Amino acid sequence: MYFKINNGCSKKVILILTFLFSTQVFSAGKIFYKRGSLTINKTKAAKNAEVKAGDILVTGKNSLAIIELNNGSKIKLSESTKLKLGKVDDEKTGTSVGLLSGNAFFNVIKKKLRGKRKFNVKTRTVSMGVRGTEFFASYGKGKSKDIWMCVNEGKVLIKAKNEKKAKMVNAGEGVRVKDGKETSKPKPLAWTKKLNWEMDPKKGEVKNEINIEAAYTDVLDEDYD
Amino acid sequence: MIRTLVLFLFSINTWAAPPAPTALEEGTDVNYTVRHFHKIKKLKIVSEYSQIKTEKQSDIVKFQTGLRYRLSKNFKIGAYYSRMYGNRHDEDWIASNGSWKWKDTKDRGENIFTLDLIPRFLLKPNVIGEFRVKVLHNTFNSNTTLKIRPSLSYVHLGNAGPIYTASLRYEVYIPMSYGDKFIYEDWAYVDFLYHYKKWFKPSVFFSVGNRFWTQTDKFAGAPYEARHKIKMFGVQLIFLTK
Description:
The complex is a heterodimer.
Chain A: H1 9-26, E1 27-35, E2 38-40, E3 43-44, E4 50-52, E5 56-59, E6 64-69, E7 74-77, E8 82-85, E9 95-101, E10 103-107, E11 119-122, E12 126-130, E13 134-139, E14 147-153, E15 155-160, E16 167-170, E17 174-178, E18 182-183
Parallel strand pairs in A: 9-11
Antiparallel strand pairs in A: 1-4, 1-6, 2-3, 2-5, 5-8, 6-7, 7-10, 8-9, 10-13, 11-12, 12-15, 13-14, 14-17, 15-16, 17-18
Chain B: H1 2-15, E1 27-40, E2 43-53, E3 60-70, E4 75-85, E5 93-96, E6 99-102, E7 109-124, E8 127-138, E9 143-157, E10 162-175, E11 185-194, E12 200-214, E13 225-241
Parallel strand pairs in B: 1-13
Antiparallel strand pairs in B: 1-2, 2-3, 3-4, 4-7, 5-6, 7-8, 8-9, 9-10, 10-11, 11-12, 12-13
């Protein structure tokens, strides 16, 4: 496209076009739903705010946010969660998300992932690769370095940094990566049955009430007689 | 003539077979227990005070302390010492002033040492099967008892952990060194525990039991077996510290 540059009005047009072009290039999605407090790069964010690659999103206490990515996938951040958005639909790396603290639900639309592109969720020590699925990932309670992950639909490949082989976790199963080092055998986890997977506020309550504390209940140690 | 008759009747009474205890003491007992667990990694230090207020005999009081250690995910072992008052045994059926009755044992202290093995398995995500085996040795009369207790428990989980536990238990007492019956005593329990706080869990239970009294060597009469049926309600206050 060719524009004849004149002073005044034309410069404003160029600025507006440059701005629109830049947001279109780097925009990865938008805030689909928000409750309570949410910041993007430490700045307060509202519903429909754009998110882009590299953004760090943080929800406050008693808050939640749902991000809808351009590829149709959704991410629901629970309260007190910090997440970094990496590249979305990159030619080489696909979509990449970093879960820095707290927990989040991921709903990945397989048919909208172009070509063989993957959707990867990473923590400091663990990598989770999905190809169209719905799963939940969480840090452990308190200062624990544990990572918990369970799958509602589809499959997830999970591998800790120092592990040689990834483990496949199927729908209905969950794992614990103790101290971020060793992944447990995938199996159904009782506490995950009550997780709230809803991503559409029009269909029902989206807030998840399950506290990660419930994951640490060792029922075999609950003997008091 | 009358004098002879009186003497004759008196001698019959003296030399007649001594009576066996009858099931006169059927009643409802109430058990109050305060129990504390202090957890240090895999070890729990247990302390307990319990009192059974009985309907037909003196109260039974127990002080207990001990250790419970988790050997593995599914196995625990324990060792305990108890001091009890008000216990009753076969040999407490005594003749006194021409009549037979149960000896008052409320002030008699007895030392009991217990070892137990507690295997627990997850049958379903929140359902636990347990098969507890205990051996108790009472130094007062050298009685050794084997107690076997299978149970089923359901732990109801909430958003942040367990909310309540409901249990069904059945316990049999097998005398190893006394008594004539294979099963000396048996109980069926239903128990409900509420996980009010991490450090405090109250519970209530109801149980029905049978206790069989048999003669000892000192009993001069014919062998007997007297069954004592008991109902018991219990309230337990359980405290936990780490």
